[in-house]
Amino acid sequence: MAAPLADIGLIGLAVMGENFALNMESKGFRVAVYNRTVERVEEFIAGRARGKNFNGARTPQELVASLARPRKIMMLIKAGPPVDAVIDELLPLLDPGDILIDGGNSLFTDTIRRTRRVEEAGMLYVGSGISGGEEGALTGPSLMPGGSAAAWPHIKPIFQAVCARTPDGEPCCDWMGEDGAGHFVKMIHNGIEYGDMQLIAETYDVMKRVLGLNNQQMHDVFAQWNAGELDSYLIEITRDILAYRSKEGEHVIDAIVDAAGQKGTGKWTVIEALQEGIPLTLIGEAVFARALSSMKEERVAASKKLGYAGSGFTGDRAALVDDLRQALYASKIISYAQGYQLLRAAAQTYKWNLNYGGIALVWRGGCIIRSAFLGDIKKAFDRDVGLVNLLMDPFFRDAVTSRQGGWRRAVVAAVQSGVPVPCLSSALAWFDGYRSQRLPANMIQAQRDFFGAHTYERVDQPRGKFFHTNWTGHGGSTTSGSYGA
């Protein structure tokens, strides 16, 4: 007797694929599974999927034939050329209205291209960001789908059944927008994740190297912080990491080489910020900090020749810990403010109709950056759907300005001790720049006009009217073109 037709198909039975398939099945959906290495299908059906509502497929043809219409096929495979290869293989087997879903970490411009291609063939395409790692895939991730809008009613019952929930029970999944919007939102999520992780690492470093706190003391600090305004997944796991010991009693954190890896999504975020002319300084510094950390051997050699004893901290130690809390919270707000500025700029460029409050809601649970803080972002956009910058919202304005003192003291203490805090300090510099009525860019414009005749605007003339000065007396009146970054 043939197995019933499945509600959805899934290609890719690595850890994420297996867990996501089990998640969907546990919510009442029959899932057809396929993997290029067929042995993985057999192992899965005989192992974790045994006795459950799964259809195992040995070929793409079998997979397609085992699905109810409109067919829905999700790919959880390596981003890049493998996705295009699977699309090439599947398109001839599908009918108009069938839906292909890419759940990998694809670059959003690839998703824009693929959406166009699949739609031209008569099918529908979805690029969905998935956050939460292996555990989230199994128990409830944050899902950020975008692409062919006609696909959403068909996948919505599945996606909103398997996703995480906010504390109020709302699904951490909603439609992000057209073509590459879902993968763009996931890219911004990952960029903010880079920033949050670096900010936490910097506060840990100051506590360790400036204050000399031991792991247990730092564990207690992060436990206290996690019970307050900094309540979040990353603070929670930092607390647990600092307390963790091996069977031999070793603090594992102290045995880990200080060279961080990365998979590219943070770099993509910074590249896109440069393309859009958005000063994403904090996330940029987080990416560069990982790059600098990877130069381990070079840093060790430099440390022997470029030493600095530091001034040593002689102030109130408990007060500096509280200053670090304020600095971390304020900098975290700056990270999100910058990330949302990039979301807004990209929405204009790519003609996406993004729901900014909805994005914060989707990030409330299941994902790596989940935190109580995101509820405040949702409320800010509920108050003003056209909010230009988070700092223009009364809650976030007051949250940052009231913490300026502690933020500045924390950065000064780190600088005086020779401990790098690139994200804490760049966030502060961005804040000071954003709140400045006047910046020294007039000098830059004068320099550009001096050596390249790039022109400038005058404070006593309307914006958009440009002038040139013959600074040397022999430069002439010919001017050069310019463009906005």
How is this fold's topology laid out?
Elements: E1 8-11, H1 15-26, E2 31-34, H2 38-46, E3 54-56, H3 60-65, E4 72-75, H4 81-90, E5 99-102, H5 108-120, E6 124-131, H6 133-139, E7 142-147, H7 152-162, E8 177-178, H8 181-210, H9 215-226, H10 233-243, H11 265-276, H12 281-293, H13 296-305, H14 317-350, H15 356-362, H16 373-383, H17 394-401, H18 404-417, H19 422-434, H20 441-452, E9 456-457, E10 466-467
Parallel strand pairs: 1-2, 1-4, 2-3, 4-5, 5-6, 7-8
Antiparallel strand pairs: 6-7, 9-10
Helix pairs in contact: 1-6, 5-8, 8-11, 8-12, 8-14, 9-10, 11-12, 12-19, 14-17, 14-18, 14-19, 15-16
List keywords for this structure.
485 residues, 8-stranded mixed β-sheet, alpha/beta, 20 helices
Report on this structure.
- The structure is a single chain.
- The protein has 485 residues and is of the alpha/beta class.
- The chain contains 20 helices and 10 strands.
- The strands form 2 sheets. Strands 3-2-1-4-5-6-7-8 form an 8-stranded mixed beta sheet, with helices on both faces. The protein has a two-stranded antiparallel sheet with strand order 9-10.
- Helix 8 (181-210) packs antiparallel against helix 14, helix 11 packs across helix 12 and helix 14 packs antiparallel against helix 17 (394-401).
- The radius of gyration is 26 Å and the shape is globular.
